[in-house]
Amino acid sequence: MLKGVFVLFKKRTIMLTMIMVLVMVLSFAGGAFANEYPNLTTYDGVPFTADVDANDANAQTVELYAAPADASWMPYWFDNEQDAEDVEWAVVGGSVSGVTVAEQAPFYVDEDFYYAYAVVTVAPGTNPGTASIVASTPESAYVNFTVVVNGPTADPYDDTADVNFEVYNSNGALLSSGDGNVQGNDFYSGRSFVTAMDGVVRMMMEDVIDNYSASGAFVTGMTIDSVNYTPPYPAGWMYRIYREGGTSGQYDVVAISEVIGADDIRLEDGDYIQWRIGEYDDHDFPAYINR
């Protein structure tokens, strides 16, 4: 008799254990579904960057598509219209004026496949420069798209900016500083306006740095006072632009410089350009500086 009770007890214990495991699995699954879209990316190979011509007589439009991505950044889709509709599109601060989000809506594929869609308008006569458009979900997943407004076919060297340079090591110590008049296309990138990468060349000309190395428009190393600073990949030299705002002597970080490349941002007179060793998503830059 005791043997039968013991067997029954074991069976009930196993059943209770299985129920508890099932509850735990469902609980974790519920947590996963609560953050079903951990990342956003572009849809079906649509480029992250679009180039348009400035000073066009007519307004120009750029179509953007955002798709969910898993934790490994593999793209997939929204499985209902509401989730696609909940994606918000906005222009990042510091973008060139004249670029606006004119329309946003779910993009229907079929009843189980949706993407987020937006139409960006570039107004006639928009000055050369760059805008960043961010798409974000209520759960804070986001992706940035870049709209580059190139100028007419005039000599890009005509676009200049008097700026200040500051270069810091990985510990935040100032290695070098200076200033100079940066000319468009110092970097020979083909941009019709003066950029932070043009400023790197000017730093070398003004002896702020001895030399630099780059992979495309990504600065991989700098030599300063005969010392080479080349951090191991994926680190490199990150930059931020600081621009004087409403408070005299206070220079606020230009938000767009946090999300676009150094050869896409247009410089303005009086800007401070800071360079620091870090990775692309490095946020070890102050929100503002006083100079």
Q: Which runs of at least 5 residues are low in confidence (pLDDT < 50)? A: 1-34
Distance between the termini: 88 Å
Largest sheet: 6 strands, mixed
* Portion in beta strands: 35-45%
Number of strands: 17
- How would you spell out the order of helices and strands? HEEEHEEEEEEEHEEEEEEE
- Give the fraction of residues assigned to helices: 10-25%
**Radius of gyration from the alpha-carbon trace, in angstroms:** 25 Å
Tally of separate helices: 3
Shape descriptor reads globular
Average pLDDT rating: 85
Structural class category: alpha+beta
| Largest sheet, spatial ordering of strands | 10-9-16-14-15-17
Write the SSE topology.
Layout: H1 2-34, E1 39-42, E2 49-53, E3 60-69, H2 81-85, E4 88-91, E5 99-110, E6 113-122, E7 129-136, E8 142-150, E9 160-168, E10 174-183, H3 196-205, E11 211-215, E12 218-224, E13 227-229, E14 236-244, E15 250-253, E16 272-278, E17 288-290
Parallel strand pairs: 2-8, 9-16
Antiparallel strand pairs: 1-3, 3-6, 4-7, 5-6, 7-8, 9-10, 11-12, 12-13, 14-15, 14-16, 15-17
